Every structure is written in C-alpha cells, then in structure tokens.
Amino acid sequence: MAGYDLSNRLVIGIASSALFNLDESGRVFNEQGPAAYLAYQREHLDDTLRPGVAYPFVRRLLSLNDLSADPDDPLVEVIVLSRNSPETGLRVMRSIAAHELPITRAIFTEGRAPFPYMEPLNMALFLSADAADVRQAVENGLPAGHVQESPGLDDDPLDRGLRVAFDFDSVLADDASEQVYASGGLHRFQEHELANQNLAHEPGPLRELLRRLNQIQAEEERRREDLPGYRMRLRVSVVTARSAPAHERALWSLREWGLRVNDAFFLGGIAKGPILETLRPHIFFDDQQLHLTSESVPSVHIPFGVRNAEPRPGRGGPPTSRTPPPSDTTMQHTWLP
C-alpha cells in the first residue's frame, strides 16, 4: 500500500506557539519548571486553548480544501511540529479538535527543535514563536518564519477570504539586491536594479510558498469557470519598499518564475503599517522587524539575508546575542512549545 503522498500539496508546519495562545501555560513552565507544566496540562487537558497569531491564516487556508473533488486528496496539509512532549501535546490536539480544524498529523519532540522534519515532510513553511528555532531553520536553508506578538486578530467568521502579503527582497527573492543597498545606498541600488531589470532574481525562502498558493488560485479559477458566481477567496499581495525603476525587476522576476500576485505596493520608503492596516492581510511576511509593528496585522519575521546577519565571535564584531537552541539539558530554563 502506497503511503500518503505530500509532494503535490501545500504543506505547512505549525508550532503550537504559533497556532494557539500559550501565555498562561508558558508562565507555568518558565516559573515552575517542566514537572509543574506537565501537571498543569494534565489538569487543563479539556480547557480549549485560545487562537494564536497564525490561527486565522491556518483556518482559512485549510478551508480551501473544499476546492478538492476528493476529501481524501486535500490541497493543503497542516502538520503540528512542536517541542511539547507527546503527553503535553495532548491538550494541543484536543484544542485543535475543539476548534474543528482538520489537522490530524503531529510531531512532538520534547524539547528538541522540530524543524529537521520539514524537508522529509515537503513543507513550504514552518511557523513558530520560537525565534531561535526559526533562525536555525533558515540558516539550514529551510523556509521558516517567527510569528510576532499581536494583540488584535481579525478572524471574522463571515469573511471567507484569505489575504496573504509578502515583502519581496529576502522573502520571495534572495538578498543580493539588499546587499547592494547595504553597501552602496539607495542610488547604487536603483542603478543596479535598472541595469539588471531583465535578469530574474534567485529565489528567496518563500518563493515555493507563493508557487503553491498560485496552484490553489488556479483551482479557484477552474471552480469559477464551472460556477460563474463563485467568488475568489485567496488573494496574494507584495508590499515592498521598492519603487520605480526598481519595481520592474521585481515584476520581471515573478514573470520569469511563472508566478503572479494580485496586488503590488511599491512604496519607496512610505511606512508599510498604514497600508497593511487597510489591506488587512491575515498574514504578512517581512525580513525586517521595523516593518512588523502593526498591532492589527498578524506578522511573521523571516530572519534571512543581510538585514539579519549576526556578527560571529572572533570575526571582528561583538558576540552574537542569540541564545543557542536549547538541548534536552537546558529545556527546563526556557519555554519553547
């Protein structure tokens, strides 16, 4: 019997810290340790966890599986990747069931980073609130994002749409042009992009995610052909600090990749926050923390490229401030769900 094939699906990995609000249980872990945390999760096993930052995105993404003619052959697969132990992960799985999310697959690694399982599971994205896990995944060439704290979540049950927004450089594309900007400034960057406007960028960490989203949009277009009244639900945007003439290379790259977006915002230094608050994406990916300050937009930091380079000890810069990923022996000191 053949196994369940993930190769033709959009597969997302989600940490429990991204899917649910774990503030309360996290405090127990940090203040009282793993034994108290285990006891707390046992006591609250049937207390459903509240939605977290990535919940609206995940719920809407999974709803697009109704485009598949066969319920056993979904377009989207979401798999839990969690540092919880199998037993403490029980509450996560019961909360998933209580929220009626069609997520049935999970990996619990009890204190160890779960991202090494992304590649065998064909994941186009891993979302986590654990910054160290995400950075290590990206350093290993994997598409991961660190969800940012967001007090306001737009999850109107009457709104069936899914709006996804990407920055361009160091997110969809590589960071080669940002390296030019970092070393030569805006004028040199604009010259470089104009001279290379017909040369597609190398892919960035989330280009494959966009490709998979475009495949779902193609399914929506086929549905609209069969049902003229069907309203497209998935909408994809690029929100970038690029402006003319550098916009042409971004559009040329999308064309050469065989990909597309519905909206493009070439802001040329205008603050992204007000634009995003009007666009109201259910998730926004950017490589720079300064663009992820909106309290009403679920945001994800992609720690890739020159903007996120960290000095290494002994190489002429200050020691890195990042705490190394905890091992089994250090997990009692850090909440890493």
From TrEMBL:
A single cellular component GO annotation: cytoplasm
Disordered, as annotated region: 305-337
One term of GO molecular function: magnesium ion binding
Coiled coil segments of this chain: none
Superkingdom of this protein's organism: Bacteria
Signal peptide: none
GO BP annotation list: nucleotide metabolic process
Polar residues composition bias: residue spans: 328-337
UniProt name for this protein: 5'-nucleotidase
Lineage of the species this protein comes from: Bacteria, Bacillati, Actinomycetota, Actinomycetes, Propionibacteriales
